[in-house]
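Subject: Sanity check before I submit

Could someone independently write out the structure tokens for this chain? I want to compare against mine line by line before I put it in a report. The sequence has 79 residues.
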Amino acid sequence: MRLQPLFVSLALAVPFALLPAAPLLAAPAATARQADTAPVLVTAAQWQQMASEGSRYLWFAKEQARTEASLKKMMKAGI
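---
Independent answer below. Compare away.
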């Protein structure tokens, strides 16, 4: 019983058989931006509150400081 070549052939053929259906499986097209996906900016007071809350956790505070320094450096460089 030589079914192995049949399975190999099917394994190779099935992906190619699905290619015509690929556009149907793709993600839906981009839609207009919705209000709930808009970027949210925080006030200086909110930023300070978040910074003070995060400082209670040592590892989080270190990462927060590193990220903020990196962000300021990139903004200064114009990136």
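---
OP: Matches mine. For the report I'm noting this point. The longest helix spans residues 58-77.
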